[in-house]
Specification:
By secondary structure, the protein is of the alpha+beta class. The protein folds into two domains: 271 residues, Creatinase/methionine aminopeptidase superfamily (Creatine Amidinohydrolase), CATH 3.90.230.10; 65 residues, Winged helix-like DNA-binding domain superfamily/Winged helix DNA-binding domain (Arc Repressor Mutant, subunit A), CATH 1.10.10.10. The chain is built from ten helices and 18 strands. Helix 4 packs antiparallel against helix 5 and helix 6 packs antiparallel against helix 7. Pfam families: Peptidase_M24.
Length: 432
């Protein structure tokens, strides 16, 4: 027999024969009673179906509300809208080694981290912007593009995704897109017509910040696969530096480990073999609020400082692999500038220099900037005033840093945070 399921509001006894109190035998239902029951069942079935449909529709609406918004292509949605909770993704977590393993389970250290949560969240927001912007830019890079177009596309995307807001949120320093033997600090000035070529090795180094908490992260692009070992050398050397870094670790030990990995690589370029070298006068560095170079340097060769890394510090671990001399010098036209962090009041004679300094203070403070950024703000005929500020020691110029011509340099860089309980690679992504 089939099981009869009850219908809400209707007894299983309805529609059956009534029990006679006199005889105790079942009476046959009248045709009218049977019809009434069937109509009642039909009405209830329709009502239940309607109610169930309403509930399903409401459930679907609530599901849609809970779905996390997705980034557009090209990216235009600020990351704050993609993470409605206000909590941004944690970077890659690495445990400390040896004598610092106890930190992982220390309740005291965990409490210190809870107190720093707002700062961690700010730097994670900046890192999420960096990841999304570089993903978009890397997908669209190809030979034949103007370098200035690459930079402006990247920078405008950062401005959108970070919800640029004066000194509270924005670009941390100019987009470095140094080519081949130029290792760092080159970005095109206005009017530059340099074109990216198939055989170029381009270092894309850009920064983001929230409330002055800076993410400094870089990668290298080469279309020609013959450069792959050069790129792999700096990528693996950077990962080694990250692995070795930690609280109470000496900076010189990090540098020695980096050099050992870096110089284990060779590369063949156009039929000629090159032993890859670390660029010995370029370093990683500590980072402070609104201060890209906060005082400590992380060497990429052995023999550096005995200074130790400390709890709570933020570092940019970056390495440069070269087929040249492994030594850079200043060359080419300057594009990068930055106000000196500890500069006091210096009287200026030129009214134009005073006006330019006011623009720099308002828009960049002690964050680095380039001439294109001044152009964007409407500044014109400012080169003499800018030179005056440099001569006075208020602004520091940062010319391009170059190895020997015809050599090639690659770079990879990540920002790490030495948390009380663990090491967080803030800028780590699926790409590198």
């Amino acid at each position: 027999m089939e099981k009869v399921e009850p219908v809400a509001g209707v007894s299983l006894e309805e529609g059956k024969s009534e029990i006679s109190s006199d005889s105790g035998t079942a009476a046959e239902p009248s045709s009218l009673d049977q019809k009434d029951v069937e109509e009642k069942l039909d009405v209830l079935t329709v009502e239940e179906a309607t109610e169930a449909a309403k509930k399903k529709k409401k459930k679907n609406r609530s599901k849609k509300k809970k779905e996390q918004p997705q980034q557009t292509d090209p990216p235009t949605i600020p990351v704050v809208e993609l993470f409605p909770s206000g909590e941004f993704p944690e970077g890659e977590i690495q445990q400390y080694k040896d004598d610092n393993l106890w930190r992982t389970t220390s309740e005291e250290k965990k409490e210190l981290e809870r107190l720093e949560k707002p700062i961690y969240n700010s730097i994670r927001q900046a890192a999420e912007v960096h990841r999304q912007v570089r993903k978009y830019v890397k997908q669209n890079l190809k030979p034949g593009m103007l370098m200035i177009d690459i930079c402006e596309t990247l920078e405008n995307t950062v401005r959108k995704l970070i919800s640029e807001n004066g000194l509270q949120a924005g670009i941390a320093f100019p987009t470095g897109c140094s080519l081949n033997w130029v290792a760092a600090h080159w970005t095109p000035n206005s009017g530059d017509k340099t074109v990216l070529q198939y055989d170029d090795v381009m270092k894309l180094d850009f920064g983001t910040h929230i409330d002055g908490h800076i993410v400094d992260c870089a990668f290298t692009v080469a279309f020609n696969p013959m450069f792959d070992p050069l790129l792999e050398a700096s990528r693996e050397a950077t990962n080694t530096g990250i692995k070795e870094a930690g609280i109470d670790v000496r900076l010189c030990d990090v540098g020695a480990a980096i050099q050992e990995v870096m110089e284990s690589y060779e590369v063949e370029i156009n039929g000629k073999n090159f032993q890859i070298k670390s660029v010995r006068n370029l370093n990683g560095h500590s980072i402070g609020p609104y201060q890209i170079h906060a005082g400590k340097s992380v060497p990429i060769v052995k023999g550096g400082e005995q200074t130790k890394m400390e709890e709570g510090e933020v570092y940019a671990i970056e390495t440069f692999a070269s087929t040249g001399k492994g030594f850079v010098r200043e060359d080419l036209e300057c594009s990068h500038y930055m106000k000196n962090f500890d500069i006091g009041h210096i009287p200026l004679r030129l009214p134009r220099a005073k006006q330019l300094l006011a623009t720099i203070n308002k828009n960049f403070s002690t964050l680095a900037f380039c001439r294109r950024y001044l152009d964007r703000l409407g500044e014109t005929k400012y080169l003499m005033a800018l030179k005056n500020l440099c001569d006075a020691g208020i602004i520091q110029p940062y010319p391009p840093l170059c190895d020997i011509k015809s050599s090639y340099v690659s770079q990879f860089e990540h920002t790490i945070l030495l948390r009380p309980t663990c090491k967080e690679v803030i800028s780590r992504g699926d790409d590198y």
